[in-house]
Amino acid sequence: MKILSIIAQKPMSTGSGIYLTELVRVIAKQGHTQGVVAGVYKEDIIDLPKEAEFYPVYFNSEELPFDIFGMSDEMPYKSTRYCDMTDEMEEKYKRTFLKVIDKAVDEIKPDIILCHHLYLLTSLVREQFPEMKVYGFCHNTDIRQMGKHNLKREFIIENVRKLDRIFAPQKAQADEVVKTYGITADKMTLVGIGYNQSIFNADGRKKDKDVKRLLFTGKIAEKKGVMSLLKSLNKLDYPQNELELTLVGGAGNETEFNLIKELAEKCKYKVNFTGRLAPNEVAKRYKDSDVFILPSFFDAIPLVVIEALACGMKVVVTNLAGVPEFFAENAPKANIRYVKLPILKNMDEPVKEELPAFEEELAEKIREGIEDNSEIDVACVKNLSWENILKKVLE
Question: HEC states along 80-113?
């Protein structure tokens, strides 16, 4: 089969970028002909299989003299918010992307086009190629963009409705797609999420450590709950030298990151910042840590939770929409503790008065994870593979 995958941002660094990259890896492994279109910077190093023809769309260039548009308002790299897109930017964005995509379609002659995010670029592709099979992946951030502002709203809704099929990670997102875009439920397919089993596993996992190690991986930002995580640690009563936290990931925005660093300096326990790491290095951190914590205020099925479980970690995560149900069905033996989300405004912003109680519960769940000495079943997520997702897509 000939497959063209398209994403408007980098095929790396974020959950949706990793999702695309891992599917491309499996597509290559299975011998399909393929190409990838993505928004990048000229200095970026793109790690895609050599079998995948890459068609870059360069931002901060003559054609696109601005930063990449990010599906989150704070990205782990230089970005522009979609809500700040002007008519002139939109025209350049449309012209440049479609020029590259036209070239890719002409050269590859794909049987299917897989577009990531039910948003502007996917809608442009659907309009540009009305006779082709075009499918869309929901990554949750697209729903958030639709809920926060009205950029090309009617155009996006009209063309998303015309997609041949839409893939969502789980039922909660599928229900939101149906409601947000007016899609009929029979156009939705639940495909879940996978992880790279050759990298994320418990091989070489360290045991019997003197220090209990807590780990967070993701964007270092308030909406990922990092500020609340640091505040919650001060509510624990372990000796200072017996507990430490490592934060793996890039900064959301500089102002927030500086505030987070200040909180880390005031924290009663040691806090390490590693910046973004390659997948192999992230896996080493999982294997050297005890409790993985993701107190995010908005997410689909967090890939990092699956990776942490595969590496033998206990997990503390907020009870994000559909996530407890997903793990109950797909990994019922997973060692996960859920923290009740605070009341939110604008989909992903916690009401400040709610945070003290949230942070108290977060501290308690972390304490439970630290004290839990039960054997971890690393096989609990073995069925969550990218191969299974591609199989569902191709079917």
Answer: EEHHHCCHHHHHHHHHHHHHHHHHHHHHHCCCEE
Q: Are 151 and 121 in contact (CB under 8 A)?
A: no
Please count the CA atoms within 13 angstroms of the CA of 215 that sit on its side-chain side: 28
Which segments of 140-170 does DSSP mark as H helices, in order? 141-148, 153-160
127: part of which helix (H) or strand (E)?
Answer: helix 120-128
Q: How far apart are CA 38 and CA 59, in angstroms?
A: 10
Please name the helix (run of DSSP H) or strand (run of DSSP E) that holds residue 179, with its range, or none: helix 171-181
Residue entry with tokens 């300096």:
265
Q: How far is residue 17's CA from residue 140's CA, in Å, rounded to a whole number?
A: 13
Looking up tokens 């601005």 gives 66
Look up the pTM and report it. 0.85
d(CA 11, CA 24): 10
Q: Among 266, 263, 275, which residue's Cα sits nearest to residue 220?
A: 275
- How buried is residue 320: exposed, middle or buried, by Cβ count under 10 Å (0-12/13-18/19+)? buried
Cβ pair 119, 97 in contact under 8 A:
no
Is it the case that residue 300 has pLDDT exceeding 90? no
pLDDT digits (tens, 9 = 90+) for 159-179: 999 999 999 999 999 999 999
Q: Is 14 helix (H, G, I), strand (E, B) or coil?
A: coil
Beta bridge partners of 56: 38
- Interval 219-239: pLDDT, tens: 999 999 999 999 999 999 999
Sorted by sequence, the CB contacts under 8 Å of residue 112 that are 6+ apart come out as 1, 2, 3, 4, 132, 133, 134, 135
192 dihedral zone (left: phi>0; alpha: psi -120 to 50; beta): left
Helix (H, G, I), strand (E, B) or coil at 71: coil
Tokens of 45: 């190093």
Task: Order the strands of the 243-248 sheet from edge to edge.
Answer: 270-275, 243-248, 212-217, 291-294, 314-318, 336-339
* Cβ count within 10 A of residue 273: 15
For tokens 């709610």, the residue is 354
Name, in order, each residue with C-beta under 8 angstroms of 117's C-beta and a sequence gap of 6 or more: 7, 8, 16, 71, 136, 137, 138, 139, 141, 142
CA separation for the pair 57, 59 (Å, rounded): 7
Tell me the pairing of strands 33-40 and 212-217: unpaired
Say which amino acid occupies 258: N
